[in-house]
Amino acid sequence: MADVAERAGVSIATVSRALSGAPGVSEATRARIRSLAQDLSYTVSPDAARLARGSNGRVAVVTPDVAHWFYASMLDGIVTALHDSDLDVLLYEVQEERERRRFFDELPARRQVDALVLIALPISADEHRRLDLMGVPVVMAGGTLGEHPHVRIDDVAAGRQATAHLLAAGHERVAMINATGHWTLEYAAPSERLRGFTEALHDAGLEVDADLVVHQRWGSTGGAEGMSRLLSLTRPPTAVVAFSDEMAFGALRTLRRAAVPVPRAMSVVGIDDHALADVLDLTTVHQAVDEQGREAGRLVQQVVQDGGARSPYVTLPTQLVVRGTTGPPPRRLA
Fold first, then answer.
1. What strands, in cross-sheet order, belong to the sheet with 88-93?
2. In terms of domains, do 182 and 326 share one?
3. Which residues contact 248 (CB under 8 A, 6 or more apart)?
4. Angle at CA 60, nearest 5°, toward 54 and 63?
């Protein structure tokens, strides 16, 4: 930097301001300094430039999983949105409970980032207070967190859409395979999608049969076991709403092994529109996970660079995608 300052006939401080983009330097002087710096193969340290601007230039993203398609798609959307910004991403995976406790106890990103993004991670009141100690904006992607900016879908509406589609086809004995998990804090999606299922039935003048709502561990195995329980009933359902596409995949496996034709004898609808849903011809409710990530990335840029988000609460729509696993109930196929 001293060489550049000597050749330009200016102070080292002026060179620093010119190369970091800081104000206080004329455009002509800035252009001359940058040209000399290029001739001398001088590059600015990103950390030094950020320090001069009073920012870290980093965003922490905390996710329960980096491999699962949902979290990976959300993360990809966030990174894509931040690609052309001056913000780098620090990634923290808190898959195990002990990793989660350590993150909130130690707050490793404190003083290192300008904002924090949580991907569909429910947190306790105490953890919320711990986050406030970081003193940086927090954005929730795939859920809500108090008054912090967020982007999400309406899970109640998704449950209603899936159920209403089956009711419109003429089904009256409609079941739901809902999700439970290993998490200690409750995710909102299972209760909200169940609420949508229940509301759709009530709107159709139908009561909820407790035997037709089963709760299984989240995943394809849980979906398979849930469908086995439903098939064992004296009066099985004619249609099933699965909490997620992955649970629907498991349900379809059970039906295939039991030689129950789909959709002629049983209709199945999922929620999410997993990449394999199209391959398996699964009727589902689509949510744009990658777009939620991009919206979260845009919110982060606004709160960091503009001091606040123009529309801090974003709810993206869901759409029913009708494929080959749903149809009318058996009695209507005469």
1. 88-93, 58-63, 115-119, 138-141, 150-153, 313-316
2. yes
3. 177, 223, 240, 242, 268, 269, 270, 277, 282, 284, 325
4. 170
Residue 1: what pLDDT? Answer: 66
Question: What is the average per-residue pLDDT within 158-186?
Answer: 92
What is the rounded distance in angstroms from the CA atom of residue 280 to the CA atom of residue 172? Answer: 25
Mean per-residue pLDDT for 82-101? Answer: 88
Residues 67 and 121 in one domain: yes
Total domain count, the chain? 3
Please tell me what DSSP assigns to residue 23.
Answer: S
**Whether residues 324 and 182 fall in one domain:** yes
Q: Residue 37 has what pLDDT? A: 75
- Element containing residue 61 per DSSP (H, E): strand 58-63
Are residues 327 and 205 located together in one domain of the fold? yes
pLDDT at residue 83 tops 70: yes
Asked if 323 and 281 count as a contact pair (C-beta separation under 8 A), the reply is: yes
Residues 195 and 325 both lie in one domain: yes
Q: Which two tokens stand for residue 209?
A: 């049969």
Q: Percent of the chain, pLDDT > 90?
A: 63
Alpha carbon distance 286, 272 (integer Å): 5
Q: What are phi and psi of 210, to 5 degrees?
A: -60, -30
Domain that holds residue 124: 58-152+289-316
Q: Is the dihedral of CA 243, 249, 251, 255 positive or negative?
A: positive
Convert the pLDDT of each residue in 7-57 to its tens digit: 778 777 776 777 766 677 788 888 887 887 776 665 554 444 444 444 578
pLDDT band (50, 70, 90) for residue 64: very high
Q: In what order do the strands lie in the sheet with 283-286?
A: 213-217, 174-180, 239-242, 267-272, 283-286, 319-321
